[in-house]
Design goal:
heterodimer, A: alpha/beta, Oxidized Rhodanese, domain 1, five-stranded parallel sheet, 6 helices, 9 strands
Chain lengths: ~210, ~270
């Protein structure tokens, strides 16, 4: 008899645990994350609909390669590859304080459709050496032209991302930055990109909305 | 004893009630579906590996097409972005960027980046303020003439641009076809009347080139104004130069108060 009661009680405990777990948190300790970036409050949380599935462009499995090839975990020597929690942490510790930039390397149309909150758009093409105006961007990132070369001592920390592990745009931008002399230890690569961000139900914002 | 049984039954009812409420999450069909997908994926993957990878040019081209989302391809308004995007993708494939005026696109892109890096909102397509800017930007962007026409007329209606009176048609609209024809003519150098007329007609989608309705009366050429005409258009037809509308205006001062005040059916003297 006592055993029966125990089983029933246990069943109750298990069920109630499920009820509590309905909240989709980012980590066990964090349900959502809010910070002010450039005078605008951004909030990152996860979609609370436990039956939600992605239905858009990002459900495709078989984009032709080339050009949509699977990328190695490292974008360039010395560049750290990061995941979602590190991106969120970067927004809090660097972007919000004005020391760092979260860079969406995709083209403006993609950026406009939705990006990670707090990101700015620097299309990869604008960082190509062939862009005659690239120096202006490097300056805006904090580089200082000294003689024929550049000093990036005061340059901002960057985290770059694009559409995901099959997207060449942010690795390409990173290679061009490193080639231009940008210190690799100031650059981070979020390889998961929009693909994994969306897959995890994390907040996406339309920058001009 | 009886009390304990009731207690247990109560527990069980509560538990099954909660399970029922949670039903959606525990749907075994989900798991079955997931298994099916895995099996399908494996089958697909083994099928794929036997195919030769597409390395030919058409394969690349279709890859590039695939990378451009369908709505972007469809929208003519985004033509200049398309050029930028295409050159971007081509550059990504190691091909030289094809864009004439690619520097313009790059300059715009850079300006947008700088604006966003400086914390301001990127000026997406700032509204051009002059007639020339509207035309040249639209033409560079490969907009359709109908689109430019709509854009121009909207700008004129809202009073944000001024259009020379000679360019107003008898219907009170901007004579976009003549404006475009004049620009095309300039870029082509000289062209004969038939060509100019063809250009003008083409610019005015839907109409075919027509011979000017001219009568010779007592050694004077008389032209009958038709629907859609402007003084600039008539000058373009007769003198191959829309700028010479003044000659027609001066010769018809007695019947025209100002260059935009011509009427359908009016007969205008065309000085030789």
């Amino acid at each position: 008899m006592f055993r029966l009661i125990l089983v029933a009680a246990l069943a109750c405990v298990i069920t109630s645990k499920d009820v509590l777990a309905q909240e989709v948190r980012i980590t066990p300790d964090t349900a959502s994350f809010s910070v002010e970036v450039n005078g605008k409050l951004i909030t990152i949380e996860r979609n609370q609909d436990t039956n939600h599935k992605i239905t858009n462009e990002f459900t495709k499995t078989s984009r032709p390669c080339p050009p949509f090839c699977i990328h190695p975990i490292s974008a360039a020597p010395g560049v750290t590859t990061v995941g979602e929690l590190e991106v969120i942490d970067f927004i809090e510790t660097s972007v919000a304080k004005g020391n760092g930039l979260l860079i969406d390397s995709r083209l403006p149309e993609w950026f406009a459709k939705g990006t990670i909150p707090g990101a700015v758009n620097v299309p990869f093409a604008t960082l190509e050496p062939s862009n005659p105006y690239r120096d202006q961007i490097l300056q805006a990132l904090g580089g200082v032209q000294s003689g024929a070369g550049w000093s990036f001592a005061a340059a901002r920390d960057l985290t770059l991302f694009c559409n995901g592990p099959w997207c060449d745009q942010s690795p390409r931008a990173i290679r061009n930055l490193v080639d231009a002399g940008y210190p690799a230890d100031k650059i981070r690569y979020y390889r998961g990109g929009m693909q994994l961000w969306l897959l995890l139900g994390l907040t996406v914002e339309s920058p001009n909305a | 004893m009886y009390r304990i049984v009731v207690l247990i039954a109560g527990f069980l009812i509560a538990v099954s009630g909660m399970l029922f409420l949670q039903g959606g999450q525990r749907d075994p069909a989900d798991f079955a579906l997931a298994e099916d997908i895995v099996i399908e994926d494996v089958a697909q993957m083994s099928a794929r590996t036997s195919q030769a990878p597409a390395t030919d040019l058409s394969g690349l081209t279709s890859a590039v097409r695939a990378s451009l989302s369908p709505e972007t391809v469809a929208a003519p308004e985004e033509a200049d972005d398309m050029a930028a995007m295409t050159s971007g993708v081509l550059a990504g494939l190691g091909a030289p960027a094809p864009a004439p005026g690619g520097d313009d696109a790059m300059q715009q892109a850079t300006a947008a980046v700088l604006a966003s890096l400086n914390g301001a909102t990127a000026p997406t397509n700032p509204a051009p303020q002059s007639l020339e800017a509207i035309i040249s930007q639209s033409m560079q962007a490969g907009e359709s003439d109908a689109y430019i026409d709509a854009l121009l007329n909207e700008a004129v209606t809202s009073g944000s641009v001024q259009v020379p009176e000679a360019l107003m048609t008898v219907d009170g609209r901007v004579d976009t076809r003549t404006l475009i024809a004049a620009i095309v003519q300039q870029s082509m150098g000289s062209a004969d009347a038939a060509e100019i007329q063809a250009i003008a007609a083409e610019a005015n989608a839907g109409t075919t080139p027509r011979a000017p309705a001219v009568q010779e009366v007592a050694g004077e050429r008389l032209y009958t104004v038709e629907q859609g005409d402007s003084l600039a258009y008539i000058a373009l037809i007769f003198y191959k130069d829309s700028g010479q509308f003044e000659r027609i205006f001066e010769a018809n001062r007695d019947v025209i108060a100002s260059p935009d005040k011509i009427r359908v059916g009016q007969q205008l003297r065309i000085p030789g």
